[in-house]
Amino acid sequence: MGARRETILETIQQYVDLVATGSSADVVALYADGATVEDPVGSEVRTTREQIAEFYGALDGLEQSARLLHTRIAGNEAAFAFELVTKAGEQTYTLAPIDVMTFDDDGRILSMRAFWSGEDMLVS
Amino acid sequence: MGARRETILETIQQYVDLVATGSSADVVALYADGATVEDPVGSEVRTTREQIAEFYGALDGLEQSARLLHTRIAGNEAAFAFELVTKAGEQTYTLAPIDVMTFDDDGRILSMRAFWSGEDMLVS
Questions:
Q1: Are B70 and A81 a contacting pair at CB < 8 A?
Q2: pLDDT in tens, B46-64
Q3: Distance CA A71, CA A62 (A)
Q4: Which residues of A touch B72 (CB under 8 A)?
Q5: Regarding the domain delimited by B5-123, which CATH topology (the fold level of the hierarchy) does it fall under?
Q6: Is residue B3 very low, low, confident or very high in pLDDT (cuts 50, 70, 90)?
Q7: Spatial separation of the C-alpha atoms in residues B4 and B103, rounded to whole Å
Q8: Quick one: pLDDT at residue A3?
Q9: SnoaL-like domain spans which residues (chains A, B) (predicted)?
Q10: Is A39 a catalytic residue?
Q11: What is the greatest pairwise CA distance in chain B?
Q12: Which fold has domain A5-117?
């Protein structure tokens, strides 16, 4: 029967909030067992919880903010654009990827693929 | 080596323009042989040129406008949000899906998956 639309929306909002201001462990907890992460699309797919934890661990301690821009849900899949702003010293890095996710029936993330490339990173 | 980023961007812009104001034959011509269309995600995948032509044929003769909102390209894949406005009599229907496409090395569309659901259709 699939996850409820509201549950998927909540997971996406939590994901965006936690990527910016949560711990990497909080982000990883949104993923189902056996989940995969491909960020950016075309890079090697991370397939273990350890690899996924290492990936998000790179964000720990950074000064970040994020906001959800546009979300579309179809069944147990979703695509959404969000903006992630990272301050590092005098520099501000802004990236607005489009992520595509699939979900299990409890609304946990089964797969994430992030569409972006180097040209999309704005530095100010 | 893959399609050039600029070529993919051109195809996406042409797609959005032609969906709104071109003929369905123009839209179908952007697809490679063997391409697939899943619109919305979760519906039956159209796998033949005839099925794809029939799908876009439903748009012929409608009064429409469209604009590209947000595009992200990664290798030979892309995700983009666009807004399609359809006027029918006194009603205006606005839908802003997120489409995910893969491309061949010439920038023709190999697959299209459109993320949206009925809740996203605005009627005014």
A1: yes
A2: 999 999 999 999 988 899 9
A3: 25
A4: 81, 96-98, 115-117, 120
A5: Nuclear Transport Factor 2; Chain: A, (3.10.450)
A6: confident
A7: 10
A8: 85
A9: 12-111
A10: yes
A11: 49
A12: Nuclear Transport Factor 2; Chain: A, (3.10.450)
Which of B17, B31, B33, B39 is flagged as catalytic? B39
CA distances from A59 to A18, A64, A122, B11 (A): 10, 9, 17, 34
Could you read off the pLDDT of A79-91 as tens digits, one per residue?
999 999 999 889 9
> What ranges do the domains of chain B cover?
5-123
| B15 flagged as catalytic | yes
Interface confidence: ipTM more than 0.95: no
Pick from A10, A3, A113, A30: nearest CA to A71: A10
Rounded Cα distance between A29 and A27, Å, is: 5
Distance CA B7, CA A15 (A): 33
Residue B1 has pLDDT above 80, yes or no: no
